[in-house]
Amino acid sequence: MKNHLRLTASFTIMLALFITSHMAKAQLFLDVESGALFPGYNDVRIPGESGTKISFKDDLQTEVSPFFRLRLGYTIKSRHTISGLYAPLNVTPKGMVGFPVDFDGETFAANTPLDASYTFNSYRITYRYDLVKRPKLDFGLGFTAKIRDAEIALSGKGVEASKKNVGFVPIVNFRLHYRMNEKIGILLEGDALAAPQGRAEDVQLAGTYRFSDRLTGRIGYRLLEGGADNDEVYNFTLFHYASVGLAYTFKSN
Description:
Layout: H1 2-21, E1 26-45, E2 54-55, E3 65-76, E4 80-87, E5 90-91, E6 94-95, E7 101-103, E8 106-108, E9 114-133, E10 137-156, E11 159-179, E12 184-195, E13 198-210, E14 215-229, E15 234-249
């Protein structure tokens, strides 16, 4: 974990130096996204080998909830994009199951009213280079250094248990933007990676509308999916997002 954090810090410093050296040709942008978060599936077993598998979607009930995401970044020389993303996520499943649940060393009796909390906050630093830059089409590939701040908690009738995890995940970043005309376009972008230890996908498909040279809006669908299966935790989850976003580019230097 320490090596991962050192790698992230080194990557951040190099990006900061790169930005500083190219500030005269950089454009600052701010991207805000919000909407509704819908549960797909959320299967949990802690510990991963000996705990009781419970669904925070089917065994307990997870309500539709609002969300927001914030991205701040620079586009340098029109092709290099460096950005930081804050994407919090927290849902609170509730309900009662007809079987005992062994969760992180605690046992919850059958038919116990349960309150759960599922937190998966994401902090990401992304560098992307636009391989294609044409009047109607942009396509870029890059790298995202992601720090996840996660906690899965369960409580009921005075019994409480939680599993926390902070970890580093390297992910491939991509962005494809096709402009049908000067105003309307289609955007496909995201971070995704699959490995033996688990997988992670955060992908958005949206329609875009250019209000002005500086302001662009979008409305679309985002999918967040992934998980891991190891001795400590088994968790695979899927969330659907109905999203609306605004991106504002500030005046360049």
